Amino acid sequence: EVQLVESGGGLVQPGGSLRLSCAASGFSFSSYWMSWVRQAPGKGLEWVANINQDGSEKNFVDSVRGRFTISRDNAKNSLYLQMNSLRADDTSVYYCARDVSNTSPSDSWGQGTLVTVSS
Amino acid sequence: DIQMTQSPSSVSASVGDRVTITCRASHGISSWLAWYQQKPGKAPKLLIYLASSLQSGVPPRFSGSGSGTDFTLTISSLQPEDFATYYCQQTKSFPLTFGGGTKVEIK
Lengths: 119, 107
Hints:
- The complex is a heterodimer of chains A (119) and B (107).
- Chain A is mainly β and 119 residues long.
- Chain A is built from no helices and 11 strands.
- In chain A, the strands form 2 sheets. In chain A, strands 2, 4, 5, 6, 9, 10 and 11 form a 7-stranded mixed beta sheet that branches.
- Chain A is globular and about 40 Å long.
- The model of chain A has no long low-confidence stretch (mean pLDDT 97).
- Chain B is mainly β and 107 residues long.
- Chain B is built from no helices and 11 strands.
- Chain B has strands spanning 4-7, 10-13, 19-25, 33-38, 45-49, 53-54, 62-67, 70-75, 85-90, 97-98, 102-106.
- Chains A and B meet through strand 5 and strand 10 of A and strand 4, strand 5 and strand 10 of B.
C-alpha cells in the first residue's frame, strides 16, 4: 500500500524558515516524480513544486521560487521542502504527492501538515 | 500561466441526480486534464486523468470528457459519499494549475 506521511509543520514567525519532510513507503520511491501541493484554510488547491526521480529537474510556482527548495533522498525514501522567508500567505496545509511523470496528475497523497505563519 | 475556471462554484443536488461540472482552460491543453475529489479534512483523491480515463478503483458513475479548452466531469447518479468538493487540474505546462473548485452539496 502506498503511504506518504508528512511532518515538520508548525507555527513560525514571518521571515522564518521551516523544513517539511515526507516519508514514502509501499512503492519504488526512486521511480516517481514527487510534488508538494498546498491549501490555505478554506481555500482551493495550489501546486507548489515538483522534482524528478534523481533530483536533477525541479519546477516551482512563481510565488515560492527563490524562497522554497525541493529535494529528495532516494536512499531514505524521503521528500523535502525547505521553506525560507515565510510570509503570512504561505499559511496552508502542505501535501506531499506522487506523480507518475512531470505531465501526470498526483495519484497518491499524504494526509498533509499544517504550516502557520504568524507573529 | 494557464488559468483554470470551474463552474458552478457550488451545486445542490439529491441522491440519484445527474451532476455535471465544467472546467475551462485559458489556453488549449489538449487532454492534459485531471479531476480530483476532496472531502473535508482529507487529502484530494484522483478520479480522472487525461480528461476521460478513470483512475483505478473509481466507480464508473464518474466520467470525464472534453479536450482543448473545455472539459466536463459528470456523476451519472449521485451517491451519498459523493458529496464533496471537486477540482480540475491542468498538467500541460508549469506551473500546474487547479480550478477554484465545485462544492457538491445535499439538496
